[in-house]
Amino acid sequence: MKTEQESKLQPGQTFPVTIKRLGINGEGVGYFKRQVVFIPGALPGEEVVAEVTKLQRGFAEAKVKRIRKASPHRVAPPCPVYEQCGGCQLQHLSYDEQLNQKRDVVAQAFERYTNIPMDKLDLRPTIGMEDPWHYRNKSQLQVGLQKQRIVAGLYGMNSHELIDISGCLIQHKATNEVTEKVKRVLERLDIPVYNERKQTGLIRTIVTRVAVQTGEIQLVLITAKKEIPRKEQLIKQLTTALPQVKSIMQNVNGQKTSLIFGEETFRLAGKEVIQETMGSLTFELSARAFFQLNPTQTVKLYDEVKNAAALTGKEKVVDAYCGSGTIGLWLADGAAEIRGMDIIAESIENAKKNAKQHGYDNTLYVTGKAEQWLPKWVKEGWRPDLVVVDPPRTGCDDKLLETILQVQPKKVVYVSCNPSTLAKDIAKLEKKYKVEYVQPVDMFPHTAHIENVALLIKQ
């Protein structure tokens, strides 16, 4: 008789497996003798021969050796460096099926973490893009030297090799073009690029952002030191080669860190900021300002928030984790009052500025956490009808969930970028709230990410 140990998978072992579903990181999930196995690149319904690459507590990781039976939804990934880069996880799956599978990932999270019967959950079809390519409005590419040529890209999966991706298929074409020309100018002027291992050289990262609606482009060169050799020539050649670039900035980051930006930013040419519009709102984007990476889908996401809120002009709204206030401003014309909070003071300054610029005087923005401000306002006699939360991937703070259960707004609209934490948080709110529906939105086609808007109604 085989012992438990013998029946378990071992590193290097090959085995046949049928893929049951996609995991949260876009990998195929199968079972071998009741042991769960994660296999990147494998698709639901496929029969593959896999090889164990790593054993973890409670599961194994493996790679595809051979596909015995391929999914009818499998396609050839159009990107030449798809396998090495790792920036996209689902280019080998047809786009329509990506939308179905992302909805299924959300369903799995609710099945696992909540008590909602699946036949009672109104989980809607994923809202996708008409054209799911070239949608990212910002690229941040590390710079390196390969065979005396400057390359710009990302470090390969689990490696320290820089993969040149200046023609990226999910980046806006304008950002690709700018990056390509910047590399050639740097080569011509022989400006040294940073070597991470030796910590020598100057140019670390090329950051390019395009304002999709206005067409304005901003270029930021991240440098290891403030002094740039042949600086005047560099500025002249960049402005000549790139007339479409309205703002050229320098950011200095001399630290040994994985963070892209340092503390100091300088203007090299053009304006400090570029203008972008989204719906009826206008935004000024500085070098370090956060802005949604896919504005086309962001409009659809925020419209879903608006539909869920269904405001009549009388409601008091709290925008928790408000950032620079975009969601609140999207709702402001239908609300009596919007109050937003964020722990980042700079974001709150931006939110105040944005509200003023758009002529909204029914807003109040404060620095801090919702769980500190909400009880204080309720004590003062101000109680929200609607709370909108858009937390980071880790989900809402437990104290905030407790505060919502105490304050009991009529509605909660939860905007989520992580189905697992969304489902876990909803499980805690289920004591007093019923999930009316969940609407997935595909913000990042060809990647494993999926956003959701969930409407919760007080029971």
From TrEMBL:
SUPFAM superfamilies: Nucleic acid-binding proteins (SSF50249), S-adenosyl-L-methionine-dependent methyltransferases (SSF53335). S-adenosyl-L-methionine binds at Q292, Y321, D342, D390. One of its GO terms (biological process) is rRNA base methylation. It is an enzyme of class 2 (transferase). Keywords: 4Fe-4S, Iron, Iron-sulfur, Metal-binding, Methyltransferase, S-adenosyl-L-methionine, Transferase. InterPro entries: MeTrfase_TrmA_AS, MeTrfase_TrmA_CS, NA-bd_OB-fold, SAM-dependent_MTases_sf, TRAM_dom, U5_MeTrfase_fam. It comes from the Bacteria. PANTHER family: PTHR11061:SF45, RNA M5U METHYLTRANSFERASE. Belongs to the class I-like SAM-binding methyltransferase superfamily. RNA M5U methyltransferase family. This is 23S rRNA (Uracil(1939)-C(5))-methyltransferase RlmD. It comes from Ectobacillus ponti. The gene is rlmD.
